[in-house]
Amino acid sequence: MPWTDAPGSVAATAHDTTEAAAEPDFLPSEFRAPSRQDVAGFMMPWDQPLVIDGEVRECPKCGAYRNWVVLCLRDDSVWLRCRAAHTERELGLDAAWYNRHSGPANHWHPTLEDGLRHLGH
Question: Which of 80, 111, 112, 114 has minimal CB crowding within 10 Å?
Answer without folding.
Answer: 111
